[in-house]
Design goal:
ABC transporter involved in vitamin B12 uptake, BtuC; 325 residues; mainly alpha
Length: 325
């Protein structure tokens, strides 16, 4: 597998993240020069630039970075857990449970805090449901988890369709935007960044074990890896990361699926680089997608999930073609 030196690899990703932040803070319905943006971040600028940069664009860019990092990290962990390169953070029905509870809050006319709390509660409810239903003789297996998650996700999908059919015209637009992923109401993501830091802190000490587990449970067990506790830990951490991302921005697809594949083509399958790299690249990708979502048709805004799909579908097809070659 390809390998690159750690310093140039992480240095390039950090530069990419910094550039995506500068573009996000400068580009919009009111364009600002990169020089003015940087000066504003360091305490300069006029009152108008401080309002635009610090109060409007910076919290949204930080929320996009946190959400992208959470989804990419969860996707990398899910692909190891299920030993399936097509696994993504939503494959076990986490987004479906979050959507049902969040849409219920919207139908009841509740505000943003209730929507976020409902989404988090729904994601955790779906997590525990899959975890309980998939337990059979011999414990949890990747196949059993995957099949149970697909069935649970289908059930949540039916409930979502029913709620959309019964929802009022006034709430329908908000419900659809939430389902497609939306950062227009994002605030400073203190909790999301804390969960992201916790997730990477929990995952990195087990990076070597993940390298072995990716080759199969039998080989991992023979080499001394505690497979069952590691699988449970992966599932809990990935679900917590996904629940936090869905709470902040709704259901945003393709980030957790595409980003780990992109990194494997560059740095190989070593999770000591893949996991932190996924956080940085996922954050930069979603910042860029959200900048496009709010700027392409300004002042009208697109759901960021639509932009990630438009970017992710051709990119993933290209990655599959390159991997086949």
């Amino acid at each position: 597998m390809p390998r690159v030196a750690a310093l140039p690899f992480f240095g390039s990703l950090l530069v990419l993240v910094a550039l995506s932040f500068v573009v996000a803070l400068a580009w919009g319905s009111v364009p600002l020069s990169p020089r003015l943006v940087i000066a504003t971040l360091f305490g300069g600028g006029d009152e108008f630039s401080r309002t635009v940069v610090l109060e409007l664009r910076l919290p949204r860019a930080l929320a996009a970075f946190a959400t992208g990092g959470l989804l990419a990290l969860a996707g990398a962990l899910m692909q190891v857990l299920l030993r399936n390169p097509l696994a993504d953070p939503y494959i076990l029905g986490v987004s479906g449970g979050a959507a049902v509870f969040a849409l219920g809050a919207i139908m009841l006319g509740l505000g943003g805090l209730w929507i976020g709390a409902g989404a988090f509660a729904g994601a955790l409810t779906s997590t525990f449901a899959v975890f309980a239903l998939a337990h059979g003789r011999g414990g949890w297996t990747p196949t059993r988890l995957l099949l149970t998650g697909v069935v649970v996700a289908a059930g949540w999908g039916a409930v979502i369709s029913l709620m959309l059919a019964l929802g009022s015209d006034g709430s329908l637009r908000s419900m659809l935007f939430w389902l497609m992923g939306d950062l227009s109401h994002a605030t400073l993501p203190t909790g999301g960044l804390a969960v992201l830091a916790l997730g990477i802190a929990l995952a990195m000490p087990f990076a070597r074990s993940l390298n072995i587990l990716a080759r199969g449970e039998l080989q991992a067990g023979a080499l001394g890896v505690a497979v069952r506790p590691l699988n449970i830990g992966l599932y809990v951490v990935a679900s917590l990361l996904t629940a936090s991302a869905v709470t902040m921005a709704g259901a945003i697809g393709f980030v957790g699926l595409v980003v780990p594949h992109m990194l494997r083509l560059v740095t190989g399958t070593d999770h000591r680089r893949l996991l932190p790299g996924a956080v940085l690249l996922g954050g930069a990708l979603l910042i860029t997608a959200d900048t496009l979502a709010r700027s392409v048709l300004a002042p009208q805004q697109l759901p960021v999930g639509v932009v990630t799909a438009l970017i992710g579908v051709p990119l993933f097809l290209y990655l599959l073609h390159r991997a086949r070659q």
